[in-house]
Structure formats: C-alpha cells, structure tokens
Input
Amino acid sequence: SIYKKIREALRDKKERMNNNEPWNVDDYKKELYLYSKTHGEYYLCDDLYYWDNDRLPKSILERLPKLDIGSRVGENSVKELFFVKIPSIKEYSLEFYTINENLQKELVDWISDRLTFIYANSVRNVHSQETRKRYSNKLKSLKIIVCSECAFKHDGNEEILKMENNEIMPLDGIYYLKSNYTSIFESKSDPQFWNSLTEVFCLNLNISREDIYRTIREILQNSIEFNKLDIDNYLSPEDWENACKEMGISETEYAFWRKIIGEENFNLKRFNLNKTDYIKEQINIELSDIYDSDTIEFSNMTSERKIKLYEKLVKHDVNSELYNL
Output
C-alpha cells in the first residue's frame, strides 16, 4: 500500500542519513514507485502528481495520475518528500471568456466586505510583519473574474478546453471562476461554488491548512453581522484593530465615519477606494488638505489636524460633539 511505501521511504532515508552515506536523489527516484488511486496503478515518483486544489479544471486534472495520500496535505511538503510534480498552470493560456456581469458585481462587493475577516483569521498566529504585509497585499490585490463561459488551451496544442461550472483557473495573476448563477442568493445552496471560491483564497495566500480553509469558507458564506460576532472567539480587540489597520482602515476610523455619514449609507468598499472623495460625495466636505488618508494614520493625527477637521465638520453643520477626535 501507499502507506507502507511511505514508511519504507522514510526509514530508508533516515538510515542513509544516520550512516552518513551520500544522499543520491536520482537513485532514490529510480526506486520509488507510488500508487495513484485515480489511475489504479503504481508510477515512478517522477511521473506522478499531487495537488491540494481539486477545483482546477477537470480537463487538466483528469489526465494526471495523482498520489493517493489524502487531501490538503501541502503541495510543497509532498513534493519535497516524494519528488512528485505539481501541475503547472503556466503551460496554459486563456482563449476566451464571457463575464457574468450580474454575479461579478455582486461578488466583488460581497468579498470586499469580508476581506478583513479573512485576513485577521489567516494571520492570527503569524508574528512576522513581513508575512503579514505579504498577506494583506495579496488580499487587497486579489482579482477574480466570474465567467459564464471560459476556455483555455495548452501551449503548443490547438485543442480548446472549456471550463465547467465551479471550476477555477489562475492565469496571469487573475482567478477565473466559472459560474452561471446570477446572484449570491442563487449560489447559497451550492457547496461546490463556495468550495471553489474558498480555494481561490487558499491559492492566493498559499494556504493548505484544513482548519483555515474551513474558516475562510465560513466567513465567505456568513453574514457580516455573524462574522463580527464570531471575531471575538479568536481575536482580541487589539488584534482586530491591528488587522483592520493592516488592511487599510482602523476600527476607530471606520466607527467615526460610519457615525458621521450614517450607518445605512456607509459603504466600506467605496470608502477604502478613496476616502476623501467618498466623504465629499456623502456630506459635501472637502478634506483632502487635512485628511490625507493614504499617508496619515487616523488614530495618530496631530492635534492641529484634529482641530481643523473638527472646525470643518462644525462649519458644515455636522454634529461632531459626540465623537472623540
């Protein structure tokens, strides 16, 4: 069985290392046969594949013998230990696609409202500022295109391969998701749609852990209100505030402008895109000379700037007496 061969391979490698014998990888590869359940036979490790993401197009995956070792084990670790291959998407190019306009627009807003929750959960045990910054940049630059139809082809091959529903294809930094649903509401009862959407985030962040996968999936499906209540189960108020800042807006800043503009009218996505323009649009106050939100952290504004902001709000009949500037 595959598990027996795993034990034998590990024992063999350990014995070689203990005896200080040279580790000849090429010889090891020639001797290591592994089982592919999908194809029902053993393969030399060089001819075998492994992947965490089963939502890639079937037209690609069904042609490749996969190592039978379970799901979401971690592509890099499996490759390092068993010398198998990881499917290369770089060998494929986009042929054509048609955007699903209705679902695309709705999904962009839906995801935008949940990005900070996903980020906060993904980095809750990450202390490296470099890694946290990389995660936040990846999430903020994430681009998903929902397609009603999408096709691609292998380089050097004229055969056009069409994507099936709920399949995803990462090409040139963009994630193409095939779906014929016209709204989030329609997709709610389809677990495969949400599995695929979750896989996009796992691919984007290079995450294979099953517990984080499940949590991201829950965050994507849950309402904003539920996510806000659930955040207390795994994050302190300070950690949540830091996560908000690292994703572009602090909870203090968000609460302040939500009160000024109004709970019902406040749109977090549009506020994050251009804060001063959004404020001017909502309450007709020009603040670009005071509130340069791209370079000034709201909670660390100087007293001089706070006073100027207060004066402008009062001048425009905005009651700011209740808010702590």
